[in-house]
Amino acid sequence: MLKLYYSPGACSMAAHIALEETGVDYETCSVLVSKGETQTPEYLSLNPRGYVPLLDLGGERLTEVVAILVHLARRYPEVGLAPAVGSLAEARVMELAAWLTNTLHVAYACLWRPKRFTTDEAAGKAISEAATARIDALNQEIETHLAKRSFAVGETYTFADPYLLVFFRWANRIGLDASSRYPNWTQWARRIEARPSVAHVLAKEGVSLWS
């Protein structure tokens, strides 16, 4: 049986939602980043990088949220988490997922963990202070992107949607009130939140999109 290691509200939430969408039986294990549980010897023996998510495939282990999302989409193609393999539409889904990982997620790392980027305390403070404005600018790109789309990529739900949902929640968490600043993104989030898989995972992880 598949087993997902996640931390509530972290980027692993995207993998959790995608796994729930598949309808297969799976187990979960909550590993609290805030309490250092990803750095314990027990967890590091599973994932030496000390991150979530981690998906145990029954012996083989898979890390990195985009890798897990792609794997689930291709392992369960009947669910429709991604367009046809090799299509331009599939590439567009991966394009957005890569941007979220390489650009927006990095901006949050600057905000929350500036010591990853410098050992100078003053420089770390400056990096963190600049990050919120950077995040807001990137969020405005998303707001524009969603102006004429029902879902993250085009008119069909894909694994990009639960991944994008993570960052909507994070925007609210850092005080960038999405309802007032990003109306298109907020309208989209309300649609995604209504999906049974999303509602289930939010309840399971004990988190809200709005605070």
UniProtKB/TrEMBL annotation:
E.C. code: 2.5.1.18
A GO MF label: glutathione transferase activity
Domain GST C-terminal positions: 86-210
Pfam families registered for this protein in UniProt: GST_C, GST_N
Keyword field contains Transferase: yes
Annotated GST N-terminal domain residues: 1-80
InterPro entries for the chain: Glutathione-S-Trfase_C-like, Glutathione-S-Trfase_C_sf, Glutathione_S-Trfase, Glutathione_S-Trfase_N, GST_C, Thioredoxin-like_sf
Lineage top rank: taxon: Bacteria
Keyword line: Transferase
Top-level EC class: transferase
Family the entry assigns: Belongs to the GST superfamily.
Protein name per its UniProtKB record: Glutathione S-transferase
